[in-house]
Amino acid sequence: MRKIHISKDAGEPLLNYLYNSGFKLKLIHTDGITYSAVASHADIFCCRMSAGANADVFIGDTSEIGFSYPENIKFNAVCLEKYFIHNLKYTSSALLDEVKKRRLELINVRQGYTKCNIVVVDGHSLITSDEGIFRKLSSYGDIDVLKIRQGFVRLSGFEYGFLGGASGRVGNEIIFNGNLSAHPDFNAICEFITSRGLKVRYFPEYELEDIGSIISE
What is the mean pLDDT of residues 28-37? Predict the structure, then answer.
């Protein structure tokens, strides 16, 4: 049975959809490892090692994770088909060793919460609201980047969260935790995803919220 790493605080409609689709849910809940707003976020504790429909997941050693930023971003990275993207100053050495085995090219960005800030669509395509990520990755000729407006995603205790943390690829769908249609860039987001042969799924019953990504194996 395929597995999904996901926050215990994900919306009930989303959790029910994944469960009824046949996935085993690994619900993330920790206390005291890092601050409460991200303590149940899967992308703090593991990294999806591919952008495709199926991927293995690198599970981080929690002893490497500090309570505050940037000590808690060791595994908050993104893998595309050819690239590994993160603030490399803070990447876990164990994760970097795994990346090097896979011969992925390293791309350094300033934003440490890299995965939070990126919706990974496929091996060559992503969505971000982060200006630095957008500029850096747009300079690569084989990466397509859609820049969206910052905000419009809930994160408890903060002014806003990030769309990457409110989403994840599951099979041939990019799934969002909440009402994506309320986002001002809804049409552009949907067009970008569907033009790559993938479906968009979201849940209008509740507000779009950053839960630390939906990480499927």
Answer: 96
